[in-house]
Amino acid sequence: MGTAAVLTGLGAHLPPRRVTNADLAERLDTSDEWIASRTGIRERRWADPGVSTGDLATEAGLRALKSAGLGDDARIDLVVLATTTPDHPCPATAPEVASRIGLVDAAAYDLAAVCSGFVYALEAASNAIRAGRAANALVIGAETYSTILDHTDRTTAVIFGDGAGAAVLRAGDDTEPGALTGFDLGSDGTRRDCITVPAGGSRQRAAGGEPAEADRYFQMRGKEVFTAAVAHMTASARAAAARAGWPLGTVAHVVGHQANLRILRAVGEQLGLDPGTVVSNLDRVGNTSAASIPLALADAAAAGRFAAGDRVLLTAFGGGFTWGAAALTWPDLAAVTTDERSPIR
């Protein structure tokens, strides 16, 4: 028996504005059938003007604390916010989110690993707990991808949505439900141009001059990403399960990054698991990048899909390239996902 980070709360928040495939087909050369058949997506949520990643993250964090039975006087030692769309290049968004939630003096930082961000953030918070540097942590994945999309590009504008999901972790032992018992992370920077926003950073600014308009927005080479995502999500899930000491046949659920339904199905098949083990809410929320795994977890938990003691594999792939997986024994908890808004500070 050893110290482990244990999941005790889960919360999710989606902006209210639904954007259906039919809505997009009115202004793009596409259709509901084209989008759904290639991605599995039927609709996504986009934040209203003036709503930021920090706003969504704050709401998800408040809900996760409520799920964990913690109130305004909660003691959280660490906040890790995984995002590709921070409120500002500087400062980080996490300290403001922590302040708005009421977490006094908590260490707080942003983590950028694109769609793998939430798994990376879980591992970072878990390490802090296992090392004794934090007794409790709040891990958030939040995105407003609608702010970095070229809305005239049907190859990307139809895929991504906005949202936030959050998890509360506490120190416990690796034999109890909720324990995170195995991680695997990796990257390949030689493939950095496959998923990118070329402009806006120091490399573009150091080159001088104004960037091309298209370089201000998210770009992706879909076919290359598809192949790499299946390979790395599968291999990483296998590695995490092995580190947890789990035979793959004992895994009850696989919660992958919600990028594409065909990717999720291919990962399940390559792991040799029944299709019913693969969790997906992609049809209703689209690809929400770092928010996708906690949103899928919260959705499945709220629907009663998980039982305490179930073995759950999380696996993700994102820009960088980055990838990662985690092994989680499901606890007895209910996610907070209602549409009622908490008082945002």
From TrEMBL:
Region ACP-binding, annotated ranges: 258-262
Species per Swiss-Prot/TrEMBL record: Glycomyces endophyticus
Domain Beta-ketoacyl-[acyl-carrier-protein] synthase III N-terminal: 109-189
Subcellular location: Cytoplasm
Sequence similarity: Belongs to the thiolase-like superfamily. FabH family.
Presence of keyword Protein biosynthesis: no
Protein name: Beta-ketoacyl-[acyl-carrier-protein] synthase III
First-tier enzyme category under EC: transferase
Catalytic activity: malonyl-[ACP] + acetyl-CoA + H(+) = 3-oxobutanoyl-[ACP] + CO2 + CoA
EC numbers on record: 2.3.1.180
Entry superkingdom: Bacteria
NCBIfam families, per database record: fabH (TIGR00747), PRK09352.1 (NF006829)
Keywords tagged on the record: Acyltransferase, Cytoplasm, Fatty acid biosynthesis, Fatty acid metabolism, Lipid biosynthesis, Lipid metabolism, Multifunctional enzyme, Transferase
Complex formation: Homodimer.
General function of this protein: Catalyzes the condensation reaction of fatty acid synthesis by the addition to an acyl acceptor of two carbons from malonyl-ACP. Catalyzes the first condensation reaction which initiates fatty acid synthesis and may therefore play a role in governing the total rate of fatty acid production. Possesses both acetoacetyl-ACP synthase and acetyl transacylase activities. Its substrate specificity determines the biosynthesis of branched-chain and/or straight-chain of fatty acids.
Principal localisation: cytoplasm
Pathway field: Lipid metabolism; fatty acid biosynthesis
InterPro entries found in the cross-reference section: ACP_syn_III_C, ACP_syn_III_N, FabH, Thiolase-like
Active site: 115, 257, 287
